[in-house]
Design brief:
The protein is mostly beta strands and 250 residues long. It contains 4 helices and 16 strands. It has helices at 37-45, 85-99, 159-162, 225-231; strands spanning 12-18, 21-26, 51-57, 63-65, 70-81, 106-116, 122-127, 134-136, 141-145, 148-154, 169-175, 178-183, 191-202, 207-211, 215-220, 235-247. Strands 1, 2, 3, 4, 5, 6, 7, 9 and 12 form a 9-stranded antiparallel beta sheet that branches. Strands 8, 10, 11, 13, 14, 15 and 16 form a 7-stranded antiparallel beta sheet that branches. A hairpin with a 2-residue loop joins strand 1 (12-18) and strand 2. It is globular and about 65 Å long. It starts with 11 loop residues before the first strand and ends with a strand.
């Protein structure tokens, strides 16, 4: 039996909690020496703070995370892998080579706690089931419940890859459960657009994640080359159909 003090303190607080996932945020980086204390003080004022994800594991809740993300576990927690045979390993190896993620992701099962390494990025808990297939930008995936599958998907057409600076492949999350994304932007700054048989045009690579049901293409901002030149917009990323897009401000 273990006892761990993870209650709120003067410096540590719970910023978000969904399902078996808790996000901790530290108001100040207090583990510094005098030489960098001033920088740490002003960093905290700009919301540059350490954040950690904690998972409560039981017989119904296992967790898959990026390799090397675990900081500590407590209880009867076992680490395995999310690879099922040689064929699955080859598939994951191909996917990792084009998305930049780890080939083999640890799978944590058992009864206890799993704490991930601290990060200065923002941690977002997303309900994958609400997206009906969630395509995420490269480098965002941190962890998910084992009921969520992470697969590599190719673009539906080459225009989105060649002209949109998005790459040929992305990670797509499917299933029912929660995933933790590691974002450069806080949730307060993200813009969520819900499309119902409509379209969204974005001048730049600002989409953080979008529904797999949306058709993503890259097109001219106007119907003619002269019009595009006159508007100084050129090419825009276009998302059509029914679904959701989470968009960054910068």
């Amino acid at each position: 039996m273990y006892q761990i003090n993870l209650a709120n303190t003067k410096n540590r607080r719970i910023s978000e909690q969904k399902g078996n996932i808790t996000i901790f945020e530290y108001d100040h980086d207090m583990s510094v020496d005098p030489g960098c204390a001033v920088g740490a003080y002003y960093a905290a004022k700009m919301n540059v703070r350490k954040r950690q994800a904690l998972f409560q594991l039981d017989s119904y809740n296992a967790v898959v995370c990026q390799a090397g993300a675990m900081q500590w576990t407590a209880g009867t927690v076992q680490a395995g892998t999310n690879v099922n045979g040689v064929g699955d390993f080859a598939k994951k190896l191909l996917g990792a080579s084009v998305t930049g993620e780890s080939v083999v992701k640890p799978l944590y099962t058992g009864n206890g706690l799993l704490m991930l390494e601290p990060t200065y990025k923002y941690l977002l808990i997303e309900d994958v089931g609400a997206w009906n297939g969630m395509v995420i930008d490269d480098g965002l995936f941190l962890a998910c419940q084992a009921s969520v599958s992470a697969n590599t998907v190719a673009r539906k057409n080459f225009s989105s890859a060649l002209a949109g600076a998005e790459g040929l492949f992305n990670t797509c999350l499917n299933g029912q459960g929660y995933a933790v994304l590691e974002s450069r932007y806080p949730r307060e700054e993200l813009v969520e657009v819900i499309l119902n048989n409509d379209e969204l045009k974005i001048d730049g690579n600002f989409a953080v994640c979008w529904s797999a049901s949306l058709n993503f293409t890259v097109e001219r901002s106007t119907k003619t080359l002269i019009g595009s030149a006159a508007s100084k917009e050129g090419l825009v990323n276009v998302y059509r159909g029914t679904g959701r897009v989470l968009m960054a401000p910068l």
